[in-house]
Amino acid sequence: MTNKTNSDDVYVVGGGIIGLSIAWQLSREGRKVTVLDQKQIAKGTSWAGAGILPPANLKNATDPLDQLRGLSHELLPAWAEQLTKETGQNAGLQRCGGWYLAESVGEMAALMGQADYWSDLQIEVEQVPLQDLCRREPVLSQWARGEQAIGAWWVPDEYQLRPPRYLNVIHEACRNHKVKLREKCKVTEVRESKSRPQVCVNGHWHSCKQLVLCGGAWLSQFTQSQGLGNSVIPVRGQMLLLKTLNALSSRIINMGHRYLVCREDGHILVGSCEEEVGFQEGTTPYVINSLNDFACSVIPELRYAERVNCWSGLRPMTFDGFPMIGRIPRLHNTFVACGHFRSGLHLSAGTASIIADLLQGRKPSICIDSFRIGKQMVETHHCS
Ligand SMILES: Cc1cc2nc3c(=O)[nH]c(=O)nc-3n(C[C@H](O)[C@H](O)[C@H](O)COP(=O)(O)OP(=O)(O)OC[C@H]3O[C@@H](n4cnc5c(N)ncnc54)[C@H](O)[C@@H]3O)c2cc1C
Asked: Does the CB atom of residue 234 touch ligand 1 within 6 A?
């Protein structure tokens, strides 16, 4: 093994939405950044996501996750515009609005609580009588007249983005800013020597000034020696892509943990599920068929839709549901941005802005105590 010192000052491990967002933000601030990915950049869990960005309001949020969501929600439209300006490509962010539907008493109660909470945050939300739903969203009229339907809410400030498109654009923007993008570079261990972080890549140690670990669901595999071996677990989600000849809607339709993301070109993304199956990727006929049944129960016309594709992704879940954003306490220049579970696409801009603040010695614009890394290390200690 050899020791290599690189003049690049920031290494980012992981080229998903979190790593690329951080790389783009830092490169815009003049930092020299290298992104290392064990496989392909922009093809991990982030590629597999649905791209639902529920409403948020930073101004009134008190919950730490809602503050991060609010920060991202404020930043993302400006980010999308800037990305489009830099690359000439549409980043695909759209304020499409979302329907929230209830079919059971439990779903109704949960949505009434959620609607009250949104109202408290001064997020616009409207309960829509089922007879009005038929007129407002004709594609839901059969559902609204059916026996299962109990309630519907409309939330105008919900956005959608198309993950492959957004990732392509941010990837391209990083390239334009001379970020070095290295694929097939597997990091197996990290350490620090005289305050300089070091990563072991394909058997060789490299050092840099500052290191950010964004390994998604795989983070624990290369941070064991830093006490983070139990910090993140993979939770598989499966997705089905349908296509109709003409677009039926351009909204997002949410019901419990499942949803239909209607794209303007007639594609409809149907998700998802939560499965703890380790690092096993791939889809199962049972889940894909049940997603198809769900889609057809909400929009019966989808019985005739083309089944275009199906895939899975591994969401990075932490033990307390909060992402980890901050410095590893016992190290001087090694940071983590990981564990965004079902919201990494939404939380990416806010996370990148916080990490850039920390690396550049600025105070982050929101309190990040709940995201600190020490908690996971205490947990790891108890577990061992
Ligand atoms: C089905 C599904 C639907 C989703 N829908 C939404 C949604 O609607 N809205 C939303 O906000 N979020 C959604 N998510 C969640 C979101 O996709 C994730 O939170 C997000 O992608 C996590 O981003 P990441 O950059 O941390 O991880 P990833 O995208 O997985 O990136 C991590 C990268 O690190 C690399 N890596 C790992 N280990 C190493 C190593 N040892 N050395 C080098 N590189 C390494 C990997 O190859 C990978 O490219 C969804 C997820 C799934 C699965």
From this structure: no
